[in-house]
Amino acid sequence: MKKKLLLGYSPCPNDTYIFHGLASGSVAWPGGLEITLADVEELNASAATGKLDVIKVSVAAAAGILDEYVLLRAGGAMGYGVGPIVVTKGERDLASLDGKVIATPGRKTTAHLLFGLCCHNAGINVECREMIFDEVMPAVAAGEVEAGVVIHEGRFTFGDKGLNKLLDLGAWWERHTGLPIPLGAIAIRRSLGEETARAMNEAIRQSLLEASQFPDKAAAYIKAHAQEMDDAVIQEHIATFVTDYSLDVGDAGVSAVRRLLKEAGWTQGNEFITV
Protein backbone atom coordinates (compact mmCIF):
# COMPACT_ATOMS: atom_id res chain seq x y z
CA MET A 1 0.00 0.00 0.00
CA LYS A 2 1.44 3.33 -1.06
CA LYS A 3 1.34 6.05 1.58
CA LYS A 4 -0.59 9.28 1.32
CA LEU A 5 1.47 11.91 -0.48
CA LEU A 6 1.51 15.70 -0.31
CA LEU A 7 1.17 17.06 -3.86
CA GLY A 8 1.52 20.69 -4.92
CA TYR A 9 0.92 22.43 -8.24
CA SER A 10 -0.27 25.81 -9.48
CA PRO A 11 -3.87 26.95 -10.18
CA CYS A 12 -2.89 27.72 -13.78
CA PRO A 13 -5.01 25.95 -16.42
CA ASN A 14 -2.18 23.77 -17.72
CA ASP A 15 -1.60 22.31 -14.25
CA THR A 16 -5.25 21.89 -13.30
CA TYR A 17 -5.84 20.29 -16.71
CA ILE A 18 -3.01 17.80 -16.19
CA PHE A 19 -3.81 16.99 -12.56
CA HIS A 20 -7.60 16.93 -12.61
CA GLY A 21 -7.71 13.14 -12.92
CA LEU A 22 -5.59 12.70 -9.81
CA ALA A 23 -7.35 15.49 -7.93
CA SER A 24 -10.80 14.04 -8.67
CA GLY A 25 -9.79 10.47 -7.91
CA SER A 26 -10.69 9.19 -11.37
CA VAL A 27 -7.01 8.31 -11.64
CA ALA A 28 -6.38 6.52 -8.37
CA TRP A 29 -3.38 6.91 -6.13
CA PRO A 30 -3.30 4.19 -3.45
CA GLY A 31 -2.99 5.90 -0.08
CA GLY A 32 -4.51 9.12 -1.41
CA LEU A 33 -3.20 12.61 -2.08
CA GLU A 34 -3.33 15.83 -0.08
CA ILE A 35 -3.25 18.63 -2.65
CA THR A 36 -1.97 22.20 -2.32
CA LEU A 37 -2.43 24.81 -5.06
CA ALA A 38 -0.10 27.80 -4.94
CA ASP A 39 1.70 30.41 -7.06
CA VAL A 40 4.81 29.15 -8.84
CA GLU A 41 7.24 31.10 -6.65
CA GLU A 42 5.47 29.86 -3.50
CA LEU A 43 5.87 26.31 -4.81
CA ASN A 44 9.55 26.95 -5.48
CA ALA A 45 9.98 28.11 -1.88
CA SER A 46 8.11 25.06 -0.57
CA ALA A 47 10.37 22.77 -2.59
CA ALA A 48 13.45 24.43 -1.11
CA THR A 49 12.21 23.57 2.38
CA GLY A 50 11.10 20.05 1.46
CA LYS A 51 7.50 20.56 2.60
CA LEU A 52 5.82 18.50 -0.14
CA ASP A 53 6.40 15.01 -1.51
CA VAL A 54 5.54 15.79 -5.14
CA ILE A 55 5.66 19.37 -6.39
CA LYS A 56 5.59 21.45 -9.56
CA VAL A 57 8.69 23.66 -9.69
CA SER A 58 10.38 26.02 -12.08
CA VAL A 59 13.23 24.17 -13.76
CA ALA A 60 15.55 26.99 -12.69
CA ALA A 61 14.57 26.40 -9.05
CA ALA A 62 15.08 22.65 -9.42
CA ALA A 63 18.84 23.25 -9.56
CA GLY A 64 18.80 23.89 -5.81
CA ILE A 65 16.73 20.88 -4.70
CA LEU A 66 18.20 17.92 -6.58
CA ASP A 67 19.89 16.46 -3.52
CA GLU A 68 16.42 15.82 -2.07
CA TYR A 69 14.25 15.53 -5.18
CA VAL A 70 14.38 13.99 -8.64
CA LEU A 71 12.42 15.27 -11.64
CA LEU A 72 9.73 13.22 -13.34
CA ARG A 73 9.47 12.88 -17.09
CA ALA A 74 5.76 13.76 -17.18
CA GLY A 75 3.60 16.66 -16.04
CA GLY A 76 5.84 19.60 -16.83
CA ALA A 77 5.63 22.62 -19.13
CA MET A 78 8.09 22.58 -22.01
CA GLY A 79 8.08 23.28 -25.70
CA TYR A 80 8.87 25.63 -28.55
CA GLY A 81 7.13 29.01 -28.67
CA VAL A 82 6.05 28.81 -25.02
CA GLY A 83 8.54 31.02 -23.24
CA PRO A 84 8.07 34.13 -21.09
CA ILE A 85 8.03 37.54 -22.75
CA VAL A 86 9.35 40.98 -21.83
CA VAL A 87 6.75 43.75 -22.10
CA THR A 88 7.00 47.53 -21.98
CA LYS A 89 4.55 50.43 -21.94
CA GLY A 90 5.91 51.91 -25.16
CA GLU A 91 8.17 50.84 -27.99
CA ARG A 92 11.59 50.01 -26.53
CA ASP A 93 14.64 47.91 -27.32
CA LEU A 94 16.64 45.76 -24.93
CA ALA A 95 19.58 48.17 -24.73
CA SER A 96 17.26 50.91 -23.43
CA LEU A 97 16.63 48.86 -20.28
CA ASP A 98 20.23 49.19 -19.12
CA GLY A 99 20.24 50.48 -15.55
CA LYS A 100 16.45 50.36 -15.26
CA VAL A 101 14.10 48.59 -12.82
CA ILE A 102 12.43 45.53 -14.34
CA ALA A 103 9.69 43.42 -12.74
CA THR A 104 10.14 39.64 -12.72
CA PRO A 105 7.86 36.91 -11.32
CA GLY A 106 10.32 35.68 -8.68
CA ARG A 107 14.04 35.02 -8.45
CA LYS A 108 13.69 31.24 -8.62
CA THR A 109 11.55 31.19 -11.74
CA THR A 110 12.83 30.06 -15.12
CA ALA A 111 11.61 33.41 -16.48
CA HIS A 112 13.93 35.33 -14.14
CA LEU A 113 16.88 33.13 -15.08
CA LEU A 114 16.24 33.50 -18.82
CA PHE A 115 15.98 37.26 -18.53
CA GLY A 116 19.25 37.41 -16.62
CA LEU A 117 21.01 35.25 -19.22
CA CYS A 118 19.64 37.42 -22.01
CA CYS A 119 20.77 40.65 -20.32
CA HIS A 120 24.23 39.21 -19.66
CA ASN A 121 24.50 38.17 -23.30
CA ALA A 122 23.50 41.70 -24.37
CA GLY A 123 25.96 43.33 -21.96
CA ILE A 124 23.36 45.27 -19.97
CA ASN A 125 22.64 45.49 -16.25
CA VAL A 126 19.19 45.90 -14.75
CA GLU A 127 17.68 46.02 -11.29
CA CYS A 128 15.09 43.25 -10.91
CA ARG A 129 12.08 43.76 -8.67
CA GLU A 130 10.34 40.53 -7.73
CA MET A 131 6.54 40.42 -7.83
CA ILE A 132 3.73 37.88 -7.90
CA PHE A 133 3.28 37.08 -11.58
CA ASP A 134 -0.13 38.78 -11.91
CA GLU A 135 1.25 42.04 -10.49
CA VAL A 136 3.87 42.44 -13.22
CA MET A 137 1.74 43.83 -16.06
CA PRO A 138 -0.16 46.33 -13.88
CA ALA A 139 3.19 47.62 -12.58
CA VAL A 140 4.46 48.14 -16.13
CA ALA A 141 1.20 49.78 -17.21
CA ALA A 142 1.33 52.14 -14.21
CA GLY A 143 4.92 53.15 -14.98
CA GLU A 144 6.24 51.72 -11.70
CA VAL A 145 8.87 49.75 -13.63
CA GLU A 146 10.36 50.17 -17.09
CA ALA A 147 9.50 46.65 -18.24
CA GLY A 148 8.25 43.33 -16.94
CA VAL A 149 8.89 39.65 -17.52
CA VAL A 150 5.51 38.06 -18.12
CA ILE A 151 4.52 34.41 -17.72
CA HIS A 152 1.34 32.29 -17.86
CA GLU A 153 -1.69 33.91 -19.51
CA GLY A 154 0.09 37.26 -19.73
CA ARG A 155 1.64 35.93 -22.92
CA PHE A 156 -1.81 36.21 -24.52
CA THR A 157 -3.30 39.24 -22.76
CA PHE A 158 -0.53 41.88 -22.58
CA GLY A 159 -2.05 43.78 -25.50
CA ASP A 160 -5.26 44.24 -23.55
CA LYS A 161 -3.22 46.22 -21.01
CA GLY A 162 -1.86 48.53 -23.71
CA LEU A 163 1.59 46.94 -23.50
CA ASN A 164 4.09 46.02 -26.20
CA LYS A 165 6.22 42.91 -26.53
CA LEU A 166 9.90 43.79 -26.48
CA LEU A 167 11.32 40.27 -26.50
CA ASP A 168 10.25 36.63 -26.46
CA LEU A 169 12.67 34.92 -24.07
CA GLY A 170 11.65 31.46 -25.24
CA ALA A 171 12.50 32.35 -28.82
CA TRP A 172 15.81 33.79 -27.59
CA TRP A 173 16.62 30.50 -25.82
CA GLU A 174 15.66 28.48 -28.89
CA ARG A 175 17.94 30.55 -31.14
CA HIS A 176 20.88 30.11 -28.78
CA THR A 177 20.43 26.43 -27.94
CA GLY A 178 18.20 24.84 -30.56
CA LEU A 179 16.34 23.21 -27.65
CA PRO A 180 12.77 23.50 -26.33
CA ILE A 181 12.38 25.79 -23.34
CA PRO A 182 11.87 23.85 -20.08
CA LEU A 183 9.67 26.08 -17.92
CA GLY A 184 8.42 23.77 -15.17
CA ALA A 185 8.79 20.17 -14.04
CA ILE A 186 7.38 17.83 -11.43
CA ALA A 187 9.77 16.90 -8.64
CA ILE A 188 9.36 13.95 -6.27
CA ARG A 189 11.20 13.28 -3.05
CA ARG A 190 14.11 10.86 -3.61
CA SER A 191 13.46 9.17 -0.28
CA LEU A 192 10.19 7.75 -1.63
CA GLY A 193 12.18 5.45 -3.87
CA GLU A 194 12.33 4.67 -7.56
CA GLU A 195 9.24 2.46 -7.61
CA THR A 196 7.05 5.23 -6.20
CA ALA A 197 8.61 7.79 -8.57
CA ARG A 198 7.85 5.61 -11.58
CA ALA A 199 4.30 4.98 -10.34
CA MET A 200 3.67 8.69 -9.85
CA ASN A 201 5.08 9.49 -13.27
CA GLU A 202 2.67 7.00 -14.83
CA ALA A 203 -0.25 8.29 -12.76
CA ILE A 204 0.41 11.83 -14.01
CA ARG A 205 0.57 10.54 -17.59
CA GLN A 206 -2.77 8.79 -17.15
CA SER A 207 -4.30 11.94 -15.62
CA LEU A 208 -3.15 13.95 -18.64
CA LEU A 209 -4.35 11.34 -21.12
CA GLU A 210 -7.77 11.34 -19.44
CA ALA A 211 -7.97 15.14 -19.72
CA SER A 212 -7.05 14.94 -23.41
CA GLN A 213 -9.68 12.27 -24.08
CA PHE A 214 -12.45 13.78 -21.94
CA PRO A 215 -11.72 17.54 -21.66
CA ASP A 216 -15.22 18.37 -20.43
CA LYS A 217 -14.63 16.36 -17.24
CA ALA A 218 -11.91 18.78 -16.15
CA ALA A 219 -13.57 22.00 -17.34
CA ALA A 220 -15.26 23.05 -14.09
CA TYR A 221 -12.14 22.32 -12.02
CA ILE A 222 -9.95 24.33 -14.37
CA LYS A 223 -12.40 27.25 -14.48
CA ALA A 224 -12.74 27.34 -10.68
CA HIS A 225 -9.02 28.02 -10.30
CA ALA A 226 -8.43 30.13 -13.43
CA GLN A 227 -8.49 33.53 -11.71
CA GLU A 228 -11.29 35.00 -13.84
CA MET A 229 -9.70 34.11 -17.18
CA ASP A 230 -12.20 33.90 -19.98
CA ASP A 231 -12.76 30.58 -21.72
CA ALA A 232 -10.79 31.49 -24.84
CA VAL A 233 -7.69 32.41 -22.82
CA ILE A 234 -8.01 29.21 -20.76
CA GLN A 235 -8.07 27.11 -23.92
CA GLU A 236 -5.12 28.99 -25.43
CA HIS A 237 -3.21 28.59 -22.18
CA ILE A 238 -3.73 24.81 -22.19
CA ALA A 239 -2.94 24.47 -25.90
CA THR A 240 0.29 26.41 -25.44
CA PHE A 241 1.69 24.93 -22.24
CA VAL A 242 0.44 21.33 -22.40
CA THR A 243 2.54 19.70 -25.12
CA ASP A 244 3.87 16.29 -26.07
CA TYR A 245 6.72 17.06 -23.66
CA SER A 246 4.13 17.09 -20.85
CA LEU A 247 3.57 13.36 -21.46
CA ASP A 248 7.29 12.60 -21.67
CA VAL A 249 10.20 14.97 -22.05
CA GLY A 250 12.03 12.69 -24.46
CA ASP A 251 15.71 12.98 -25.33
CA ALA A 252 15.49 16.61 -26.46
CA GLY A 253 13.66 17.51 -23.25
CA VAL A 254 16.30 15.85 -21.09
CA SER A 255 19.00 17.81 -22.93
CA ALA A 256 17.04 21.03 -22.47
CA VAL A 257 16.57 20.46 -18.74
CA ARG A 258 20.25 19.59 -18.29
CA ARG A 259 21.30 22.75 -20.14
CA LEU A 260 19.01 25.03 -18.14
CA LEU A 261 19.97 23.42 -14.82
CA LYS A 262 23.63 24.10 -15.57
CA GLU A 263 22.80 27.73 -16.37
CA ALA A 264 21.04 27.87 -12.97
CA GLY A 265 24.15 26.65 -11.14
CA TRP A 266 23.56 22.90 -10.93
CA THR A 267 26.71 20.80 -10.92
CA GLN A 268 26.67 17.20 -12.06
CA GLY A 269 25.92 14.90 -9.16
CA ASN A 270 22.83 12.83 -8.54
CA GLU A 271 20.86 11.86 -11.62
CA PHE A 272 18.37 14.66 -12.13
CA ILE A 273 15.52 12.93 -13.92
CA THR A 274 13.75 9.58 -13.68
CA VAL A 275 14.34 7.02 -16.41
From TrEMBL:
Q: Name one GO biological process term.
A: menaquinone biosynthetic process
Pathways involved: Quinol/quinone metabolism; menaquinone biosynthesis
Family per record: Belongs to the MqnA/MqnD family. MqnD subfamily.
Where are the catalytic residues? Answer: 152 (proton acceptor)
Q: Which gene encodes it?
A: mqnD
Under which name does UniProt file this protein?
Answer: 1,4-dihydroxy-6-naphtoate synthase
Q: Where does substrate bind?
A: 56-58, 110-111
Concerning InterPro entries, the annotation shows: Menaquinone_biosynth (IPR003773), MqnD (IPR030869)
Keywords for this protein: Lyase, Menaquinone biosynthesis
Coiled-coil spans in chain: none
Reaction(s) the record says it catalyses: cyclic dehypoxanthinylfutalosinate = 1,4-dihydroxy-6-naphthoate + dihydroxyacetone
E.C. no: 4.1.99.29
The entry lists its GO molecular-function terms as:
carbon-carbon lyase activity
Q: Which organism is it from?
A: Pseudodesulfovibrio piezophilus (strain DSM 21447 / JCM 15486 / C1TLV30) (Desulfovibrio piezophilus)
Function description: Catalyzes the conversion of cyclic dehypoxanthine futalosine (cyclic DHFL) into 1,4-dihydroxy-6-naphthoate, a step in the biosynthesis of menaquinone (MK, vitamin K2).
Q: Name one Pfam family in it.
A: VitK2_biosynth
| Highest taxon above the source species | Bacteria
> What EC class does the entry list?
lyase
- HAMAP family in alphabetical order: MqnD
Write down the Gene3D superfamilies for this protein, in alphabetical order: Periplasmic binding protein-like II
